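Dear all,

This email documents one entry for the complex benchmark we are building for the journal club exercise. For each entry we list the sequence lines for every component of the assembly. Then comes the predicted three-dimensional structure of the complex as a token string, followed by one or two observations. Please use this as the template for your own entries, and keep the labels exactly as they appear.
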Amino acid sequence: MRQAAARPVARNLLRLVILAASHAALLAQAPPEVANFPHAALLAQAPPEVANFRFTGQNTLAWNATAGADFYNVYRGRAADLRAGTPPQCHAYQVVGTTFTAAQNPPAPRDIFVYLVTAESEAGEGTAGLASSGAPRVTRGSCGPVVQGHVMNRTGFGWGEWSSSRIQTLGIQGYIDEQLDPASIDESDNVALNSRMALHDPPAAIYGLVSRQLFSAIYGRRQLEQEMTAFWANHFNTYWHKLHDMLLPFYSPCSESPGPSCDPNFPQILYREATATQHHETEKFRHLAFNGTFREIVEASARSAAMIVFLDSFKNINGSPNENYARELLELYTMGVDGGYTQRDVEELARILTGWTICKKSLADVDNPTAPCIANYWEPAPAGRWVAHFDMSYIEPGIRRHDCGAKVLFEDTPYETHFPATPCVSPQEGVDELDAALDAIVAHPSTPRYIVKKILQQLVADNPSAVAIDALLEVWYNHPDGVGVLREVTRAALQLPEFRSPDQAGSKIKAPFEQFVAAMRATRGSTNGLSLIFNYLATAQQLPYCNAIPTGYPETGPEWIDTNGTLWRQNFGLILTELADAAFGSDPIGLLSANGVSPVPGNEAAIVDFFAKILFAGAISPADRQAAITFLSTNDVGVVSPLDTTRIRDTVGLMLGYPQFQEQ
Amino acid sequence: MAQRPPTASCSRRSFLHGCGLTLAGFSLSSLFPGAFIRHAMASTIPDRKLLFIFLRGGNDGINAVIPHGDPDYNVTNRPTLYIPPASAIDLGNGFASLHPALAPLMEPFNAGDLAIAHRIGYPDSSRSHFDGQRIWENGDPAQPQLFEGWLGRYVAETKLSAGKALPVITVQGLPPLLLRGKEGFVNVANPNNFNYDDSFDPRRAKLAAAWRGRFSQLRGLEPYRPILSQTGVRLIDTIDEYGSWSITSWDPKDPDSPTHSLFPVVNGPTNPGFPQEALGFFGSLKACALALLESAGSTGSGTRVAGTEIVGWDTHNTQLNRHGELLSWLAYGFRSLRIVLSGGAIDPRNYPSIWDKTVVVTMSEFGRTTVENGSNGSDHAAASCLFAMGGPVNGGIYNCDASTWPAGSMFAVDGRYMIEHTDYRAIFWEILRDHMGASPPAPDAIFPGYTSLGLASQELGLIA
């Protein structure tokens, strides 16, 4: 390894160059957030440049303690990138002390990293000094805003007015703690959210369901609750259209089949019934995401009418097995494809699942699979809802719908579980048998391992580390509140040092839903849910409730990055900033004015900097910034001319289409 | 007035390929794990083209290409799915017939342009859609979590994309793993609308230039920057090329039925009777065909690989009609491709024939159970059938005759599933080597272990 010799100038900070080598030791816990600012009273301005920045070992950076500093920030970048105009980015935030161990290998061998360090106090962040040219050294964004932006991106849907103000007030730890307790977050005065939700309360059709998810994501303060609700609904993917098709034979127009069960408002009642059932499933996931365990949520899914329909459980009967749900329950929802189950396990589980179907029950009975069904299902709500039903009736003389014989799961493994034959009289036998099967499946060690990895992929990294997985497994098994407590496992992910590391900022990709919502949040976007945004979600292939494939929508970057995806993300940004309707549109001018940035000629840089802060936490290169300023300063054929509000909107559209906005 | 994307209720979505449990590193330096041998397969044969269609869900090969010569194909095993010989199309070798819905395939078959291959798969095949599709697309059953395509490797190894405006195009909801690799490619989800919105002209040029600059100069340590950069630049560079084809004004007609479109995309008199949900497939197939036809000449697109998919083959329930429906789309699509690519369509554009340079091939992650299930459908199984068509193809029936189909074949895997006779890799390597060109040939660079597994001995001689 080479080290550049430090020039013998004591005061000025010099650029240091190393070949990065070994892995950094990972901390067992996130370092506590710096909350006190002991020097606030002493200094009215930010600390000065840090002195004597140097290497003391192969990988250890050190510097002199700086007067007035409460902590230090370390920036890192490739030398080649710096030469090409992309400055170093935040690498470590709030380093307490005056040394830092450089992190692990760069992606390619013989890469050369450049490091900078700054001192920060409550008065602000100090300078990184001057380059040899005499110009101030720049960093690509500043650590504090970058980490805040990262937290907003990962615990929700990106920057928002309420969220950014809240994170300033509470600090990062306080904000995360509050988001993990959604019931404590008051939405009663959230007019933007409540006025829209009231239009779809209850949702009457698929549009209403999708609208509610959009509204919660765009306008809701309980950002993490919405994110995790969508996560579990996607993990246990169901498909509204199939529910609709299943109920179709039960509701026919009076013009075609007059009679007591016909629907004079066809297809409204059909839509309403399918939607009510689907909506109930989502709200159950919303509740359990922060108030339940994995065992409870997988049961909620197994007993969801939407799931029973989606994977053909109602066609799985004694003597004529249908393995669809049994297979996906093991492969996708609990243990994972490499979890160690066999074809025999799929078959035995299918036998266990025989007897489940759906019917309409009174509201008092919706959670009781053995309660009787309503005969007059066509009567208008609130007569009941279509829900799970366990059917032990005869399908042929002497043959019950449920296979009551003995079964075994995980035979010849340490997790072998027997299910003795039952008398075949009461539906409760089948309900209890599924309970026992879910106990065995959730207790199998493959299940938490598979589930925590998915949670980590959602929140932390596309390729979670073994350390992170182990940390969550520890919480899964040993938390005082119980096994697999979803809130606590989620909390553990957000407490990981890996999560808080600025290196994670931008290391994931926004899925299309996340991108469109983030764009709306960043521009005072308005939607009534029924309009253009629905069509864009369809084109971008991510309509909620509309995925026919059991695996749900993917979470990792390469699954979403393609020319088509980039095109529609860019087109969405353009149309969002072009329009200003309440039904669909944005108000970036209002956002500027509300924050003291005048939308007038001469203010190009301030306007661009404002949106760069919102969209990218300021972490764009000088060339990216200048390109937007130039765009704002010139007309459609590139001639410099005074800006107007239309051109401001177009420039925001340009920035929404920057590659960096696809990252989160 | 701004163009709007088409109105949709729940859109049918294409099958996904892998739930991303692990990420096979996308950084430029570490794309290839150790098993791959880096060869420079310097040359392909210029102007050769490949069009693939992935049948996602698991095509029931037994009912598509029916082995009537095997007594295990009977009404006891398939009470509702059995198709008697009288209802099927006799292929003339005393063993195999075609599902009646595949009748349009008899045109290419009788002309010697269609190879019908059965029992294509791989040993120990996966019963999982997601692993199964991934394995068919990544070319290595030993690495079910490898997120890179064999065709993507071929494109990168042979530098097939170099200097071409639009060398590789897929037309489907999400980009297929099959082409994922070091070289990017263009994926188009809506073939009628692949452009920046009209209303932004004349600003459009200013926007595109600004964006191109930002994407091409994108640097930093964020892991997806290389692929984001590449994708954005490619998008901008290819939008104009794609637009120059004017796909919405191209509608080649059937010479045997001149009012009917060969690729029906709207309802009405030009649609020979396909349901609404088929029109998306035909629109995608049309875009693939157009890309290949537009490829010629110095100002052409240079397209050499095109592909799409049909979803919905996972027929666990009431299979008979549904499967027949899907097969009818596939067959009409095949027949249309042959007519259009050989210059036989009624079409004012009069594209010259590229038939002698084109191979069309299907793939599907597995076949379905020999014995039907309790829901009048079938479950995931092992081997299935495959169709390869084109001027360079040696037409005929492969692996579906008395000499290649021993008794018990339909139960030979786990006592339940039809066993493969030819490994899928042997099919595709032969097409790459002998049709597309790979010189010097390096099969292990595309399909790891090809040589050591002796897969060459399974090649069927599909390419003339």
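Observations: Residues 1-38 of chain B have pLDDT under 50 and may be disordered. Chain B touches chain A through 84 residues (CB under 8 Å).
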